[in-house]
Amino acid sequence: MRRILVHAAGLLGTHLELFGLELQDALQRLVADFILGVIAVVLGCLSLALATVLLLIIFWESHRIAVAVVLMLVYGGGAVAFACYVRHRLRHAPDLFSATCAELARDRKALLQPAAEEEA
After folding, report:
1. What was the pLDDT predicted at 62?
2. Model confidence, pTM
């Protein structure tokens, strides 16, 4: 019985270490993705604003309303497409802590298998 408890404690320690590593990795990816996303959004907004102003200046005398409407439709379409992409990405994200769950399932199977053999 004591040997089983020692093995169980060792397994628990290993699983907690694996969980900690996966959590740390997930947090690092989240922070890096957030920072890169913010930078991309800021630079993209500046670029779009300057491009919009440039086009409106170029077509100020002839077609400023048409240019403004077309740009609005392009920006709106881009926003909808990007929102759909983000939604798809979130729905199909990989499971968090999949390695920890797989390891726990293997251990549960290994622990239940000897119990079934003893009963037989």
Report:
1. 92
2. 0.53
